[in-house]
Amino acid sequence: MRQNPNFPATHGVWTEPAAHGSKAAPQLYALVSYRDTDDVQERLLAYLSSVEFHADMEGFDMSQIVGVVESVLTPTPDSPLR
Q1: 34 neighbors 41 (Cβ within 8 angstroms)
Q2: Are 2 and 55 in contact (CB under 8 A)?
Q3: What is residue 42's three-state secondary structure?
Q4: Which residue in 5, 15, 25, 28 is a FRET match for 63, CA 20 to 30 A apart?
Q5: Buried b vs exposed e over 48-82: b needs ≥16 C-beta within 10 Å?
Q6: Which residue, 48, 46, 40, is CA-closest to 70?
């Protein structure tokens, strides 16, 4: 993954397989960070429509993305991400 200062910093991407016997698609999780002054929604939409995002997702079937859910997390005082 490429890091561009204009986009959120991606710290990792994980998958969670669907339950055994389920027809649901696996879940994909990405941990990204933003600057305190960022408008998270604005920056996310800019990244999702960027050339960099499409390059990061090269070879991935984009039709498999059926929704995006976001949660804003605050790192604890001893977190290395602080």
Answers
A1: no
A2: yes
A3: helix
A4: 5
A5: eeeeebeebeeeeeeeeeeeeeeeeeeeeeeeeee
A6: 40
Give the type of residue at 48.
L
Dihedrals φ, ψ of 14, to 5°? -130, 155
Token duo for residue 24:
């649901």
Amino acid in position 37: T
Which residues, other chains included, contact 40 with Cβ-Cβ below 8 Å and sequence gap of 6+?
A: 34, 70, 72
DSSP state, 51? H
pLDDT in tens, the chain (82 residues): 556 667 777 788 888 888 888 887 778 888 888 887 888 888 888 888 888 788 878 888 877 777 778 888 888 999 887 7
Which H or E run includes 13?
A: strand 9-16
Q: Which residue has the tokens 């600057």?
A: 35
